[in-house]
Amino acid sequence: MDEPHAVVVGGGIGGLSAALALHRRGWRVTVLERAPELREVGAGLTLMANSLRALDALGLSPALRSTVHAEAPGGVRDRRGRWLSRVDAAEMIRQLGTSALGIHRATLHRILREALPASSLHTGAEVEQVESETDHATVRYRGPDGPGTLDADLVVGADGLRSRLRAQLWPEIPAPVYAGSTTWRAAIAFPDPIPTAITWGPAAEFGMVPIGEGWLYWYGAITAPPGGHAPDELAAVRDHFGAWHEPIPALLAATPPGVVLRNDIHHLATPLPSYVRGRVALLGDAAHAMTPNLGQGAGQAIEDAVVLGAACSGGAEGLPAALAAYDEQRRPRTQAIARASLRAGRYGQQLRNPLALAVRAAALRLTPPRALLRSMTWSADWRPPRD
Ligand SMILES: Cc1cc2nc3c(=O)[nH]c(=O)nc-3n(C[C@H](O)[C@H](O)[C@H](O)COP(=O)(O)OP(=O)(O)OC[C@H]3O[C@@H](n4cnc5c(N)ncnc54)[C@H](O)[C@@H]3O)c2cc1C
What is the pTM of this model? Predict the structure, then answer.
């Protein structure tokens, strides 16, 4: 039997995870990434138990645990710094089997990249069209040397929020919509030990996550009209958060100008009726772009990859049934998490009314920590499929 061939469109965290999952199952993989260089922009990520188990299943445990940092869980504060709720680290380990890890996106991307054969990775290659037939698919792309065509048994659409494959093969699905919030983020050198924590104010949230080796990731989110830009984004963050409790002013003071990223948050508001069309399977943000409020977007992309790899372990033989199984396992979970993430944003970062803020603070103080943790971590309670 010929070696089955998969073309993965997009070399982000989702695409590289999918390529690795299929490579480990005996597939020949070709990753086409339109950027001239394979790298991840952005600051940090929180990897919860589900993401860590998915990365374990890809064989990445040793590389990960030697590089990254177990979070010191903190909890939720108000903008004066009063704790509304504390996360009990021992209870988290009891409920989920592991604490969470903070990691720089670039580190995770590098670990994934290094686990793949270098010959499978192609940059400067923008996919323009995919045609799916009954028993194969054709990928048309524009590479550094001009147009090219690839034949594949399977095409994985991991081309992100603005997925061209989704627009082409699911034309009835509207484009992603603005979720109402804009976010600033940065990774900075900050060696002082601080807990992972979020702080809520009216229609605003600030979060901080240690990501190891003396580095820290912070983000600030506010409710705002889309498309806003400031000539100095760091100054804009200081305007919003500079008078909040320590260490927020200290983190902003330690942030060099020019490293702050600003993104409006968009999500796929219309859920896809299937993640599979013919020989094409969507994954990650292409399939279920969600708001970042549960910190699960990348985690769900990695889970998708592990499940897709397991479903396709029989090679190209029986692929329609394998892809149907992938869709059946992934769609309900990822779409439920996307809905929950949107709700978490409305109840968390986007809450503005003073009375609602007071009720939320009282509710958080009265909820037993164990129940609160369970409500926050249900999405992390996932295990890879057994072989
Ligand atoms: C502010 C913020 C904070 C977040 N925090 C977290 C967190 O703490 N934890 C977490 O798990 N998730 C988090 N996320 C979500 C996470 O970043 C995404 O869900 C994840 O990166 C999606 O990965 P992906 O590979 O699906 O898409 P992407 O990372 O968007 O990758 C898509 C790739 O496809 C390439 N591409 C696009 N079109 C083409 C084409 N036609 N041809 C070839 N290549 C193409 C792009 O260049 C890109 O490299 C956050 C998101 C935001 C915005």
Answer: 0.96
Which ligand 1 atom is at minimum distance from the Cα of 159? 34
7 phi, psi to nearest 5 deg = -105, 125
C-alpha dist (Å) from residue 254 to 104, 105, 238, 244, 341: 17, 20, 12, 15, 30
Tally of residues, the chain: 387
**What are 102-136's pLDDT values in tens digits?**
999 999 999 999 999 999 999 999 999 999 988 99
Q: Counting beta carbons within 10 angstroms of the beta carbon of residue 378, is it exposed (0 to 12), middle (13 to 18) or buried (19 or more)?
A: middle
- Between CA 33 and CA 73 the distance in angstroms is 36
Q: Calculate how far, in angstroms, residue 359's C-alpha sits from the geometric centre of ligand 1.
A: 35
Going by alpha carbons, the residue nearest to atom 45 of ligand 1 is: 10
| Ligand 1 center from residue 169 Cα (angstroms) | 20
Q: Work out which ligand 1 atom sits closest to the CA atom of 209.
A: 8
Distance, CA 362 to ligand 1 centroid (Å)?
36
| DSSP-H helix ranges across the chain | 13-24, 49-57, 61-67, 89-96, 105-114, 164-169, 233-241, 248-253, 285-288, 297-311, 319-347, 354-366, 369-377
Q: Whose CA is nearest to atom 9 of ligand 1?
A: 295
Tell me the C-alpha to C-alpha distance, in Å, between residue 66 and each of 62, 114, 177, 213, 214.
6, 15, 39, 11, 15
Does any ligand 1 atom lie closer than 6 A to the CB of residue 176?
Answer: no
Token digits of residue 266: 């968009």
Instruction: For 231-240, write each residue's pLDDT tens digit.
Output: 999 999 999 9
- Chain-centroid distance, C-alpha 324: 23
